[in-house]
């Protein structure tokens, strides 16, 4: 197989780090396994019950602009529970979507080139995560958003949904912000698309977990659960930083 000068140079660097030369196939197969393992673990963690809701680092909350909605609901009987139910449903929707994320990651990994593999191996500690974010984000967004939308459209108080409340709140606020008095006091309009905001928050949580899984494989020898992972990532252990 003919490899590019750049890949050949990187391969030579890696070959000097281990007891035996790494082959090009080993590098790309090791990287593919690492990506699939990390992504599968992340999807499994977040796809479990309370994967999002029970983890403060990724739990999805309403935007800061929703504070008025939350404050008002909290003043009516059962209002606190309504707020909690909204947040719970949003996070449950994200957990449901996460269960279906692994195949999207796997498909991306199949498309990985030799150049991608070497760039990831020799890149930053989150290089694999950045590769997956670049190659899967749009497809994951299309998976997550309908589930998030279904959650925000569900009625929470009488015939009013979370989305209804959000539209009403921001609409009234924007009228005020656009009024002479609002402009005089420098009020800013709120143009946050609720479903878009929540979907992006959910995906940020997913990639946060993927990054943690990647770091484990790069830094923790015990996380390299197969010979190919031990061989490929072991080649970096003594490499100058």
Helices, strands, pairings?
Blueprint: H1 5-15, H2 24-47, H3 67-73, H4 79-98, H5 102-110, H6 114-121, H7 127-152, E1 155-157, E2 160-161, H8 162-178, H9 180-184, H10 194-219, H11 227-234
Antiparallel strand pairs: 1-2
Helix pairs in contact: 2-4, 2-5, 2-6, 2-10, 2-11, 4-7, 4-10, 5-7, 7-10
Q: Could you explain how this protein is built, in words?
A:
The chain has 241 residues and is mainly α. The protein has one domain. It contains 11 helices and 2 strands. The chain has helices at residues 5-15, 24-47, 67-73, 79-98, 102-110, 114-121, 127-152, 162-178, 180-184, 194-219, 227-234, and strands spanning 155-157, 160-161. It has a two-stranded antiparallel ribbon with strand order 1-2. A hairpin with a 2-residue loop joins strand 1 (155-157) and strand 2. Helix 2 (24-47) runs antiparallel to helix 4 (79-98) and helix 7 (127-152) packs antiparallel against helix 10. The chain is elongated, with a radius of gyration of 23 Å. It starts with a helix and ends in a 7-residue tail after the last helix. 32% of the residues are buried. Residues 14-18 have low confidence and may be disordered.
């Amino acid at each position: 197989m003919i490899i590019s000068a750049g890949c050949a140079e990187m391969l030579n660097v890696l070959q000097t780090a281990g007891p035996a030369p790494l082959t090009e196939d080993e590098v790309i197969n090791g990287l593919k396994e690492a990506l699939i393992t990390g992504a599968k673990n992340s999807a499994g963690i977040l796809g479990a019950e309370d994967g999002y809701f029970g983890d403060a680092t990724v739990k999805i909350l309403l935007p800061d602009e929703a504070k008025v909605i939350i404050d008002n609901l909290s003043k009516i009987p059962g209002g606190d529970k309504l707020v909690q139910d909204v947040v719970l449903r949003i996070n449950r929707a994200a957990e449901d979507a996460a269960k279906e994320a692994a195949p999207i990651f796997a498909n991306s990994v199949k498309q990985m080139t030799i150049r991608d593999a070497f760039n990831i191996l020799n890149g930053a500690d989150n290089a694999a995560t950045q590769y997956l974010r670049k190659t899967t984000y749009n497809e994951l967004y299309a998976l997550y958003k309908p589930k998030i939308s279904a959650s925000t459209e569900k009625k929470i108080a009488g015939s009013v949904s979370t989305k209804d409340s959000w539209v009403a709140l921001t609409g009234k606020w924007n009228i005020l912000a656009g009024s002479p008095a609002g402009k005089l006091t420098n009020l800013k309009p709120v143009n946050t698309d609720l479903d878009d905001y929540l979907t992006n928050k959910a995906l940020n949580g997913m990639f946060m977990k993927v990054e943690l899984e990647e770091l484990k494989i790069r830094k923790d020898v015990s996380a390299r659960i197969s010979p190919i992972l031990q061989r490929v990532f072991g080649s970096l252990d003594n490499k100058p930083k």
